[in-house]
Amino acid sequence: MVRAAIAWALLLLLLPAAALAQAEKRIALLVGNQAYSAEIGVLANPHNDIALLERTLKGLGFEVATVRDADLAALTRAVNAYARRLAGGGQNAVGFFYYSGHGAADGGTNYLIPTDVKTTETGGLWDQSLRLTEITRKLKSEAGNATHFVVFDACRNTLKLKKAGARALVQSKGFVPVVQESGMLIAYATAEGELASDVGDGAGPYARVLADEIVKPGVEAVTMFRRVQVRVRSAIGQEPWLGFSALGEVHLAGVQVEASMPAAAAQTSPLREAERAWALAKDSNSVAVLEAFVVRYRDTFFADLARVRIEELKKQQVAIASPLTVQPISRFDGTWQVTVVCLRAPDGAHGYTWQFIAQVKDGVLHGRYGTVREIGQICSRLKAKLRPTAPHCSRLMALLVRQRVPSVRSHRGQLLNMT
User: Fold this and answer.
1) pTM
2) Domain ranges of the chain
3) Which CATH architecture has domain 23-245?
4) Strand partners, 112
5) Residue 293 CB neighbour total at 10 angstroms
6) Three-state secondary-structure class, residue 202
């Protein structure tokens, strides 16, 4: 059964990716700004956020462009190029814009803060930042053919602003709702006017939940974003905001395929192929099979699971190869009560049993039973090396019951060969 599963996994690795292409053009732009000046405040997770979503969206068939630490000019160029690519994507194109970094609101205007901003004084800060509505209006006017998902994971709680002429710092304000554009869903990582957290190991809380939910097949996009809202609120008490108007149904991870449909028709994306292959390969003990899986599906999160499985198998192999620790023979040292049993001989000679006290030193037993020159007694000295794994002896055995004097407690030792 295991061999069959591995064979199927290898077969799936060879399936042509062209057969899994999306019907609609999918284009994404991910911006991660974290290398701000000390006055603005360096962030920890924006680069991790877009790296995680880049792998996830590529697995869903998106062409992904990423921009890290963009100044105002670079941010403007990236948005313009993104709008042009979407406009050329034809009807039913799907766009996914994600921004992770500093952002804030001034009155009724929301701003994305580039990394080249040097001052926290609100007047100069707004002049050097990009208005959120410049992005949404450009996408609507220049790429109206597409369905847009616009996500702002901004308004970090570490940003402190300074009003012109004042010396005291004030807490920045979260984004305010914007006018809804048809065919566009806009999501904030936190509620209206509230601030978002930058905590998290490997990615921020919003990006991590979004990457986990977006790959689930059969879930319409609006429902998926609502699930993200619920999970983020439950995890950290942060309430994401969501707005949309006249948005058609989009299943980013494909529609749920009926069981009666042929397997070939059930495939809707490279992620579905990777999911099926992983179900067959995940229990494999072959590092070679798992490494082949990583090569074939490197841009999906299933490849990350395969890498973890490979590390576990390699650790197990090292543990098996490592020699067992041998317990020192000195653990037998002490005073012992010894029982010597001589079994009945095949010729009919009677056997016998003697008990006496002996000493064990460095794994060697020293003892004597009987009394010297006492009539009718047998006297003999014993010297035997104790071996914890000694084989059974059919003629002479010593059953040792360890008893450290004056302790009352005792416990049975092993049945050991006397040599």
Assistant:
1) 0.56
2) 23-245, 329-417
3) 3-Layer(aba) Sandwich (3.40)
4) 103, 130
5) 29
6) coil
